[in-house]
Amino acid sequence: MPMTSLSALSPLDGRYAGKVAPLRPLLSEFGLMHRRVQVEIEWFIALSDAGLANFKPLSEASRGFLRSLVLMFSEADAQAIKDIEKVTNHDVKAVEYWLKQRFGDHPELEAAAEFVHFACTSEDINNTSHALMLKSARDSVLLPALDRIIQRMTDLAHTFAAQPMLSRTHGQTASPTTVGKEIANVVARLQHGRSVIASVKMRAKMNGAVGNYNAHLSAYPEHDWEAFSRHVIEDALGLSFNPYTIQIEPHDYMAELFDAFTRVNTILIDWSRDVWGYISLGYFKQKTKAGEVGSSTMPHKVNPIDFENAEGNFGLASAVLTHLSQKLPVSRWQRDLTDSTALRNMGVALGYALLGFDSLLRGLDKLELNAAALNADLDNAWEVLAEPIQTVMRRYGLPEPYEQLKAFTRGQPMTRELMQGFIAKLDLPQAEKDRLLAMTPGDYTGMATELARRIGAH
User: Fold this and answer.
1) CB within 10 Å: which end of the chain, N or C, has fewer?
2) What CATH number does residue 365 fall under?
3) Known catalytic residue at 295
4) Is 167 found in the same domain as 81?
5) pTM given for the model
6) Given 10, 158, 170, 240, the catalytic residue
7) 212-246: per-residue pLDDT in tens?
8) Same domain for 146 and 278?
9) Catalytic residue among 140, 199, 218, 295
């Protein structure tokens, strides 16, 4: 069976291919090859500038040609490397040979061809490539997608800042809040989660087979290879230098990054489930789209499928991310290959996260507030005013305020008339009594409106 979107084993390359397309050139095997070419070229150019007796600085024309190989890297180039790999049975060596083949019409480069991959182990190229892949995916795709969710939820928090809503602690009626404040709570969590993701430094090493510059020093024992490696990693590639490694960069930064994404996924699973519940209660309606079907047998249904899909995809993302964060930092002695096959699933893990972001944003864009349902719930929950009444009673030293309200309200149906009748009999200053008599469940929201309007303010 030919490979198509219908025959793809992973839904990321099938049903959902369009929604994760921005990650494909970055976290695929094509993306890995592309970055390997970039790393090999920047190492090669830097070597020409290192003052080595056998490798003079390259001309501007040669530098331009080399960097054009990165800029113009195509699927045909990736396939050519793959064809070489069929012979070498080694993916990084295939990149080296492909680069040397490109030197054929450039005598200056051909003369220096043996400085391609000079003193490098495959992991010098791979770990820097993975860091570049993750940096690009995070900065150009995943954080912008998360930012769209944060911005949309901030807008909703401001729009619904003053709309009162009955809280439900333990599933029971509780002190009111506002819709905007509940959304603002999630925004605040996401803002912190985003900052953690953005702050992770992508680390890399280029120090040889076991991290000691053994081969480098055998050829040029007087050269400061550590400083040179730092220069390539930080100045040429824009990554963070790790001076202490075995053959592999230990992947601790990856674990930090993947754990940070998992934390954001958890926050958004929590929110997706809450919205699902609010839709079930009728607090939100969902905009309908002509032609869409909610149920194959029940014509009336408008299912909250976007929030359900988001929850499912965040769960898949976190499952793979958690495995990667626990597996990648563990390597037997100076190197084993268990990380290699696992690393090829970075795109799977982050693809499901992106799919979750997409589903959630679609769901948020369909939400319409049902103020009538929210207000009706509040009007049927006068018992929630037991809290402010007993608190004012405490202020004025009335006897056993909590116990009085407990006996009056617990397990009893409450109405405006019953609650106001209780207030009228209290030995309180008239001004306080009038304030309590005027209070409704919808008024009793504390600082919720102010807090909701404040979220996102700079």
Assistant:
1) C
2) 1.20.200.10
3) yes
4) no
5) 0.95
6) 170
7) 999 999 999 999 999 999 999 999 999 999 999 99
8) yes
9) 295
